[in-house]
């Protein structure tokens, strides 16, 4: 049985829930939110849909005890209104979301949860790191959607230039799910051709494409006030790779031994969560950007003293 | 190719769009909204998801010309804020939504659209009727989700009592997608047993169950501020029955020759939209309720003079 | 994680496997067949498809130890060539398939399997009974597809007369998955109307319709040499109801306390397998046919002495 | 509406049909086979499944007139028994399948079919070429599954070595869907790393891997007597790219201006069929192999005089 839980049923959490239900992916689904009326409303809306769906999902709300045998836990809480629209700064959420994680993590730990936790909260890398430490779950078991979404946006942006399916574009966005991220163009191929070979012939401005991908979330946010469909699709796809032990290559926010932080990088996703991280031969420039982005995450993470002064669970080696 | 269009990308329209994209149902999808930034944001959010989906849907926005060869058109505009929460009165929306339909219908007509239009706007029955008249589309081609959703809620409510799958509950909610609707209990079976045979043994309060189903939308609305998942699921399911010419039995808001109004009743949905309506042997009490509910729709519809005084397209016989 | 196993990868078993893989239903799948080359070939063919599917399923072969934590086990072995085409007699398979079950059951028992077993082997009712006894699994845990397929055929046959979706036809075929089965017409509705009310107006010959449904398998068999798609679809749907604990109403071959045999009848399918059987108010004629069909199963079952003289596991009450 | 037709309902054609029906991809499906009883049996078996599926597909048989407005036509006829098992030689089928195409093509032409035709018959490249000429359909409209399947097998074989998802392996098998095919290792990446960089560290024998991929079909064939699931999955995926105008990069048997023959190579698949072919910078060795494989196809194709001496439709430029 595939048992899922979602903590936080705002736009992202609710859309994840709908995806799991309408595609018949989840057999059981636990929705948890401090706003009980909201959790109940989402439960009802999803249950109202069940008579019209071929599959069935048992849906329960607000019971942390259910996490004991939950396989996949999505952490999606967060105050969208805390976002600093002007600056495009996902860090503006950290103070607020950190408090949420401080409230959630002990309950997750106490529940006996021992599945895989996937974080979509922003700032994604730091929150994922914080949640992993606070719960004492292994670094394999906890990861963030990170640049999995940014990479999808890069694929879309490049695909538009070449008028093809985004799936024809391979390659990765690395680093922070935020401003310091970068597209490692040395890894990007268009229909099997290195994009660096196409710059001249197609008059490509890679910096402009990178910027468009990086700001893709803001483009959505400015029009609808939040983002939901793409991030939910990404989160669900990662969870399916865990259930199937697919060992699928995906850029996610995973713990880096090199940088001692969670950061967006290609990883292999399987039944244990992050089975391994993949080291590609980046260019010197890309390597510097990667280091810089990791530093940005670490610096901001350290600025939150309380995040570090509370007793830490012993760090565990990546499985 | 399955070509869809959605006019109005609020919560309902956007969720329909997401369902069509994430399940690979639509090959092409046109999103239309007077709020261009919103339409563009939904387009972007859905396109961002495409690299993570196995299927692909071409998504365009705000071009009525695309309706000329569109197969299915969802009408989902509406101002959720106009709802009168206190009274639970879907009619409160009519003034507002009528204006929307007045703006939309001529454009739909001018586009040359000749597919099937499915309305989810409230008050559903009256708006569907108005839209059908204003566009000159046939009564077969235009129908509303009507009591398809209310019936799903009835199935859920009854299924909870009997601890079974909502799909085990057959039968129909008739009438207005609103307060005057009623569950025709004579049509309802639980696992193949007429529910009327189970009233005593299970101490059922059918009136209470009916009320719970009828107010299901408000229960959702009060917690999340709108409803989206169940109504979108219903709308999509109806559209699939049209594409496949499934001739699937569904209670929808269809034109009634008897009452000369659109009203919720079982109908056969196929490639032409409403292929026929199904006449069941209701009890005298149910028949009276049906008449009453139809009267309620007609009365309110007539109250809107401008809806009637504008030149009407010649009425066409049900195909 | 959804873990499935299939014993017997002939046409039915292989089609079940393909359905589970191509729809992303199974996370892990064990194929078992005495013909190792066949099991290996099906594994390879399914694995070759994986690069083209969005989902992933881990596929292993011929290891009974894997059954220890398997959730759903399909029993699909059987020698299609043993069928007596001339008589349309599914019992002709019993001698052969009984030997197969005699070989399989101890291995299943020894594996520690404790999930739900769904039998598609013919004669379905007797083999299901035999397998349940021989493995010592509970009567809830073991059931057969039985008349779930025959009911689907009845729905199709009736739907063709009324030119509508087979899903518009409710009601059940009862009894043996074989010649003594019957359609309980008192349970059948067409678009919500009792079919018995439509006999005159539509000049229906219910006996002819029943015969057409009963012989549906032979119609397929005579053209392609076996049946596969419908039976696989039925088997997979039942398994999904178990995983989701859907408590879905389905006619299956379930143990009847009344008749002390497995026999096709409506039941509620949930996480324990058969959660309960549903007793409908059949007509006197239908009740007699049901008794007769159960007697047919029992009589033939008893004819196989060795099936009864071997030590039996203690019978367990239906959960 | 998505309208499909399949000519030839042997194992491949029937499995394609089942995939289209069980996943709800096709709205209408035409099955054509000279063995009417077989076509009828497959139709019945698929129709028997419909009451258990959420979607519906209208299924008809043996009417070439239906091709006039068919969107996708699969050509899957072929005599599996003509295969020369000992030699692993797909060409052994040509004499037989050519006759089939000679019989089919005029009927397809006469039907007014103007959609996209996808050939799975072997020898795939030559038969595809023959069918394109004989029908007068454009070279864009007609293509073969070709090395789309061989590439999937290569991905599987390499993925097993690296214990990861086959979808993590990018790159292409080029050339004949037959013995002269080759894996263009310069195009292959494992989790984003060029496989040529991993040969030493992982002690890879690329020739052995290539051979395993090339003979993947025979491995399946030797165990089950035919191949079905992977080829059907590939064929359906290509058709979905056409419906959605996905412009998806896929290695298929497409017409090559360079070689003046159909041959396996990466192409962009969209609404017109083959929208363009993709030219990658192969190594000198790979280029030689590609030329050689194309020559093999041409040589064998020319050997069939009657294939060339019949009046040809005027060749059309690739759209």
UniProtKB/TrEMBL annotation, chains A, B, C, D:
GO-annotated molecular function: L-lactate dehydrogenase (NAD+) activity
Active site (catalytic residues): 177
Pfam families for this protein: Ldh_1_C, Ldh_1_N
Keywords: NAD, Oxidoreductase
Keyword S-adenosyl-L-methionine among record annotations: no
Annotated residues for binding of NAD(+): 8-13, 33
Superkingdom, taxonomy of origin: Bacteria
An individual GO BP term: lactate metabolic process
Lactate/malate dehydrogenase C-terminal domain residues: 147-297
Keyword Signal: no
CDD domains (alphabetical): HicDH_like
Domain Lactate/malate dehydrogenase N-terminal: 3-144
Family indicated by similarity: Belongs to the LDH/MDH superfamily. LDH family.
Name under which the protein is recorded: L-lactate dehydrogenase [Lactobacillus sp.]
